[in-house]
Model the fold of this input.
Amino acid sequence: MLKNYINGEWMASTGTETVEVINPATEDILALSPLGTTQDVNKAVAVAKEAFKTWRKTPAIDRTQYLFRLKTLLEENFESLVKLCTEEHGKTLIESRGDVRRGIQMVETACGIPNLMMGQSFEDIAAGIDCQAVKQPMGVFAAITPFNFPAMVPFWFWPFAVATGNTFVLKPSERVPLTQIKIFELIEKAGFPKGVMNLVLGGKEVVNALCSHPDIKGISFVGSTPVAKHVYQLGSSHGKRVQALGGAKNFMVILPDANLETSVKTCLESIIGCAGQRCLAGSVILCVGNAYDQVKKQIIGLASDIVVGNGSDPRTHMGPLISNASVERVKGLIQSAVDEKAEILLDGRNISTKKGYFLNPTVIGEVKSHMRIAQEEVFGPVVSLARIRSLDEAIEWINNSPFANTASLFTASGAAARQFSYEASPTMLGLNIGVPAPMSFFAFGGAKDSFFGDIKAHGTSGVQFFTDTKVTIQRWNKDSNIW
Ligand code: NAD
Done:
């Protein structure tokens, strides 16, 4: 049975129910993860609150030494983390390397906190009066994370939180806790003081306890839109800062002047990477004018050549989905497209494997905006192709979606690129880029039903989320007689 990490110790959860952690390529049971309780949360928050008293007074240059040590440990254990990530999630080794690497980059960026956290000051805001604004840590923060990036997503938050002087409780996805357990072993080795970093395993009960705990100052959430909304509402109704990153429907527009060969390859990679289980995965390709027929021909060819299999086999291009329920859900969405009279150009549902939650890539043509396949998040390897007349129509289609995570445009025209950047509602855009994932030193997060809150993840936004600004206005005139 997996254990919680609280106050620098590995301890049994008080929960009695468990979830099986399953390798989705083999269906082997890798571990049993406990469904933690409110009691576990109370314990973790109490020690984190106590640890905050000392940690917030520890100078930032000393706090970052723990992160520098962790960075070295993460590099030394890079390939074992990659292996674990592939085993519990299913993604290919190359994809897991990206997952772990992006996580390490967050630690690297947070090591720059003495610069990032610096405040402002101004002499003589009025005669003889000076003003300073400092960024102060706030207390205990928590993050609740999804299954699709077992290594990276928790790193979007906690390095920034603890570097700025807060203490932390992480609840990873109950479906992929193993990579985080290994990372917490490294956190322990890096020597963080007791109570600064805590791990509580579990599901709904732990989430609700974190969102309503009076001693938690803020919640970072990443997951599906319904749960993001719930966490945002529950957390904010308990007076917390909340940043809740939700689901997505990412459109990709190809104009006839684009380099079609590269654009189609890039779009396919975006759609089938991690078997489509990325919040930045492309979904519907909006082909403008005569681009449609060429895109269709090329993408069917490329998608047919994708080698599906166990992600730990280096020959594999695409691994399994996370569960049988996911496979059935994606199959259902493909069927809805058939029922709504779209054209199935490549059917990935017919795949013969004895074990594992696999689908081949599917390509669907003549998709229209009213169809479910055009509106819902698929989170599976399904390419949808739509034939449209103009960039204006593409932008209208994108802006009508309730989601607004990312969108990409493929073109050689600067004017088209500018119009797209200016008018499209998603807040992470790609111009001739298929997965516009902001790096650790930029802000990450969408809009509309893809994001609930005000302050986005990582970069200087992370620093803003995890600190409060205190302004002190002062007068120290030696000849003043105001006393
Ligand atoms: P999920 O919403 O099922 O789970 C996310 C977290 O919420 C998990 O830790 C889970 O334990 C918890 N949870 C699940 N149901 C809950 C409930 N009813 N009450 C309280 N807590 C609950 O999401 P998932 O399937 O793990 O991840 C996939 C989703 O995450 C996709 O929709 C994807 O787009 C989204 N995602 C978004 C981003 C982004 O940056 N916007 C990044 C990664 C993933």
